[in-house]
Amino acid sequence: MLQEIIKQKLEEVKNLSASTLEEIEKARIEYLGKKGLMNDLFAKFKEVPNEQKKEAGVLLNELKTSVQQKIEQLKETIAQRQEELKPKEDLTKPADLLSLGSIHPLTTVRKEIIDIFSHIGFTVAEGPEVEDDWHVFSALNFPPEHPARDMQDTFFVENREDGNNVLLRTHTSSVQVRTMEHNQPPIRIIAPGRVFRNEAISARAHCIFHQVEGLYIDKGVSFADLKQTLLYFVKEMFGSETQIRLRPSYFPFTEPSAEMDISCTICGGEGCNICKHTGWLEILGCGMVDPNVLKASGIDPDIYSGFAFGMGVERIAMLKYDVKDLRQYFENDIRFLNQFAATI
Ligand code: PHE
User: Fold this and answer.
1) Which residues pair with 311 in a beta bridge?
2) Residue 215 β-bridge partners
3) Which of 215, 251, 292, 311 to mutate to test the pocket of ligand 1 (most atoms within 8 A of CB)?
4) Structural domain of residue 6, as residue ranges?
């Protein structure tokens, strides 16, 4: 009787086992394939007497679903076993190396400048980036409305009634003023820091850049001291063969004032594209501190004299690393910065 066969097969299916996907596939074909058992039974079903058809039909369907379920279940078991057999993470394996960043070239150059000056007794002084007019201009001998204020396009933060406007410092000379206000000579400081000018961004200018300014005040400080100090700096920074040249210039806070050039670091003075065939590169401004500036900060110019200088860190770094576009320092392009990884 068909029902008996089906019942027997139901038992058989319950106990079906397989340890590989091939074995499962074989079982599937055996039961559900075109010439498989199920089709066989369905064919036989036609011969079942009418009064038994209902019982046989239910059993037949039960068998079909249980075969399908069993096959799914066997597949799952195998997938699970394979998952378990997958090699586990090797806990004894050394950790992957983290890729380390490197020191930014501007930081390296700034540190180098500080190191060089610290060897001859200069200490680092710092001050606020948001400043007032007094410390950035007035105390430095920029008279109100004097066109010299236009030399440095300023970002203003707040206009004050008394004229002592709040602004972003355009140079770190403000730190020199603060130092003179709070200390009596001898003063020997360098002021590294960020400065801000309202300039169009280009390959040679940026609205944010870095300066290191220096100030030396004592009895009997002369222009010869200024020249010798800067010559020492340049030889340390760019190599002992480097020459300097001072050209007369103007700053409200120094008198006399000068612009300093170094012999071209690329061609050594012969003339090339970098130095525009002059053999010289301009690197900083300097001069003897104007007596008015000393007075404004409470230092007696009849007793003391001093010199000051200021340079752009980006400019020095561009010359040192032969970088042609200043903007590269601020773009944080990893391909650019990676070149300096060895300078850690
Ligand atoms: N403060 C000047 C500038 O920012 C640089 C400078 C400093 C010049 C000290 C002379 C003396 O351009």
Assistant:
1) 212, 284
2) 189, 308
3) 251
4) 2-85
- Calculate how far, in angstroms, residue 48's C-alpha sits from the geometric centre of ligand 1: 111
Q: Assess if residue 94 is contained within a domain.
A: no
In a domain, 90, yes or no: no
Expressed in angstroms and rounded, the spacing between residue 284 Cα and the centre of ligand 1 is: 8
Name which residue sits closest to atom 2 of ligand 1, judged by CA.
310
pLDDT value at residue 152: 63
Q: In angstroms, what CA-CA distances link 263 with 94, 113, 260, 294?
A: 51, 18, 10, 33
* CB neighbours of residue 149 within 10 Å: 18
Structural domain total, the chain:
2
251 lines ligand 1 (CB under 6 A): yes
My answer on whether 314 and 245 are in the same domain is yes
| Below-50 pLDDT ranges, the chain | 343-344
247 and 165 in a common domain = yes
Residue 123 CA, distance from chain mean position: 28
- Count CB neighbours of 32 within 10 A: 15
Whether residue 320 lies inside any domain: the answer is: yes
Residues 59 and 158 occupy one common structural domain: no
Indicate which atom in ligand 1 lies nearest the CA of residue 172.
1
Question: CB–CB of 63/41 below 8 Å?
Answer: yes
List helix spans (H) across the chain: 2-14, 21-32, 37-45, 50-85, 105-118, 133-136, 173-182, 223-238, 291-296, 313-321, 328-331, 334-337
CA angle, 247 then 251 then 252, to 5°: 150
Which residue, among 136, 193, 164, 186, has the nearest Cα to 306 in the 3D structure?
Answer: 186
* 145-180 pLDDT, tens digit each: 766 565 568 898 998 999 898 999 999 999 999 999
CA of 241 to the centre of ligand 1 (A): 26
Report yes or no on 33 lying in a domain.
yes
CA angle at 239 for the pair 235 and 243, rounded to the nearest 5°: 55
321 C-alpha to center of ligand 1: Å? 23
